[in-house]
Amino acid sequence: MMPTGNRALAAVAIAAAAGAIGAWALWPEPEPASLLRPGDPQVVAAGAKVYAAQCASCHGADLQGEPDWQTRDPDGLLPAPPHDETGHTWHHPDDLLFRITKHGVAEAANLEGYETRMPAYGGILSDGEIISVLSYIKAQWPAAIRQRHDRMNEQMKSQ
C-alpha cells in the first residue's frame, strides 16, 4: 500500500500527464507551407484522373480554359479560366484554391451573390481528391511559376 502523500502525488502526476496528452491531441497540427504536392508522382497521377473526369470538360484537357475567359458571356457569367500559366490560378494561395474547389467561389472568396457555373466540389470529391487535382494542376506549371507560387504560400503562412 502506498502512503497517502505518495498517492496524492501520483494522482497529481497522472492528472498532469492526462492533461498534457489531451492538450497535445487537441492542439492543431501546423500546416505545411504548401498544401499541394506537385512533386509527388502518385498524388499528381491521381489528380490527373480526377482532372480528366471532373474538370477538363470546362477548363480544357490541357488546362487552357475556355476562349475569351475574361469576357462575360450573354448570361453575364465568366467562362472557365485556364489553369495553366496564362491564367490566374497560380495567383492564389493553396488554401484559397482548396476552399474555392471545395466550397465554391462565392463562399471561399466571401463574394455574396457571385454567380459561376463552377460547382462546389465538397459533396463530390474528397479533400484528398481536391488536393490531388490541384497538385496535378500545379505540376503542369513552369518551374518559375511554381517557385513564385511557393513563395506566395510561404508569405501567406507568415502573416
Automatic annotation (TrEMBL):
Its cofactor is heme c. Residues 42-141 form the Cytochrome c domain. Pfam families: Cytochrome_CBB3 (PF13442). The keyword Electron transport applies. One of its GO terms (molecular function) is iron ion binding. Keywords: Electron transport, Heme, Iron, Metal-binding, Respiratory chain, Transport. The keyword Ion transport does not apply. This is Cytochrome c family protein. It comes from Lutibaculum baratangense AMV1.
